[in-house]
Design a protein that fits this description.
This protein has eight helices and seven strands. By secondary structure, the chain is of the alpha/beta class.
């Protein structure tokens, strides 16, 4: 049985990774305001929002999603404080920038270790208790970049493509058990996320790709962080949540354009496809 925290009406517990800044920090505030017990996890608890200390139902916990023991310990600490975890939000992640050739294989691996394998690691640590109770909600933070790849962000967007497939398959595996999966697909926000992009040596041959990315960024419309995370918080733990939740209208425009491009591409080459049997 979930251990209720004094003053909480909800009594349910959400475990959030990457809670020190941006989306994660805002989700902590949004869900605490909705009566959730919140395990706000991050690699460096010293970077936690000072306002968390005034929230009785928020516990700041250290968790490095690239380390098995750190994740296991964080889940145990959340269970000790609040009881079983009802919802999991995998939000930790970062963006590696540079063209494929400019990003070293080591940094490619590091990108996937956090953005993909980190998600798997946390789910592995939380899912058994959800399976035992036959209920729960797992939300994975992807990106509109999980549908639309961008020049000079190949490592990052491909990791989000992987997360989309991972989450979609996971949802089909867990639906018969009674556990829901939602993929959060935000467009860019004005947060420190974009101030901490990795840098790599640049090759002059890719200056055109960089100009294309700069032009795209200049024309992009940023989403409203507070409104977007409020929308996410509203679906956490609800009955029949969406598999995909786009937050930020500009991102939805990008995905619809991508779908049109896919249809056009397949239609144009359908005569070749049909000839292959």
């Amino acid at each position: 049985m979930t251990k209720l925290t004094v003053g909480q009406e909800n009594g349910r517990t959400v475990f959030i990774t990457g809670s020190s800044t941006g989306m994660g920090r805002e989700l902590v505030h949004q869900l605490a305001a909705r009566g959730w017990n919140v395990a706000a996890t991050m690699r460096d608890p010293g970077k936690a929002d000072r306002a968390f200390a005034a929230l009785d139902a928020v516990q700041v916990i250290r968790a490095d999603v690239t380390d098995d023991e750190s994740v296991r310990t964080a889940v145990e600490e959340a269970n000790d404080r609040f009881g079983p975890i009802d919802a999991l939000i995998n939000n930790a992640g970062y963006a590696e920038t540079g063209t494929l050739e400019e990003v070293s294989l080591e940094r490619w691996r590091a990108q996937y270790e956090t953005n993909v394998f980190g998600v798997v690691r946390v789910i592995d640590a939380v899912l058994p208790q959800m399976r035992e109770r036959r209920e729960g909600h797992i939300l994975n933070t992807s990106s509109m970049g999980g549908h639309v790849s961008l020049p000079t962000m190949t490592a990052y967007t491909s990791s989000k493509f992987a997360l989309e497939g991972l989450s979609e398959g996971l949802g089909k595996e867990l639906e018969p058990i009674g556990i829901d999966v939602t993929i959060i697909e935000p467009v860019g926000f004005t947060t420190p996320f974009f101030d901490n992009l990795s840098t790599n040596p640049q090759l002059a041959d890719y200056d055109g790709a960089r100009r294309a990315m700069a032009d795209f960024s200049a024309g992009a419309r940023r989403g409203d962080l507070v409104k977007s995370m409020s929308a996410v918080a509203d679906v956490v733990g609800t009955d029949n949540p969406p598999l995909r939740l786009a937050v930020g209208s500009y991102g939805l425009e990008l995905v619809r354009n991508k779908l049109d491009e896919l249809i056009q591409n397949y239609n144009e080459w359908e005569h070749v496809t049909l000839a292959t049997g």
